[in-house]
Write a structure and sequence with these properties.
The chain is of the alpha/beta class and 151 residues long. Helices cover 20% and strands 12% of the residues.
Length: 151
């Protein structure tokens, strides 16, 4: 077999159906749309219409609440900070938003940074974040560090 002998399998490419091109084509006149009615005409959109029956999106009750004032924080855990300090990516004396972005621990700042207590921390670190859990603050202080919550 040569490159110039390669071709598609039989029936791999189907030609487009040319509708409304005469009675002899098999799909002339009404072009396969049947006779009359809304769907035979152009510009029809009946998604969600159930023939006059109350549609499902109106039969089902509304649920939930989306708080427009909710803050979405970029989450940083203690074990992540410990690994970064051990690897030399972070300076333990001053960890803040800028240093976390530069070291690649977080990619987006979002509405701020929240410190959570997953994992353990053994190094004494000074962290400045927008929010922190009580357990995370306790763990950092136990290791001899300090957490500053900045508004």
């Amino acid at each position: 077999m040569k490159l110039n002998e390669i071709k598609d399998n039989e029936g791999a490419r189907k030609s487009r159906k040319r509708v409304a091109r005469g009675i002899g084509s098999g799909s002339g006149k009404t072009a396969g749309r049947g006779q009359k009615g809304q769907k035979s005409r152009s510009g029809v959109a009946v998604n969600g219409f159930e023939g006059g029956q109350m549609p499902i999106y109106r039969r089902l009750p509304k649920r939930g609440f989306k708080n427009p004032f909710a803050k979405e924080y970029a989450v940083v855990n203690l074990d992540t900070i410990q690994k970064a300090v051990d690897a030399g990516k972070l300076n333990a004396n001053s960890i803040d938003v800028k240093s976390l972005m530069e070291s690649g621990i977080i990619s987006k700042q979002l509405d701020g940074i929240r410190l959570l207590a997953r994992g353990a921390i053994t190094t004494s670190v000074t962290i400045s974040v927008n929010s922190a859990s009580k357990a995370a603050v306790a763990a950092v202080e136990k290791a001899g560090g300090k957490v500053t919550v900045v508004a």
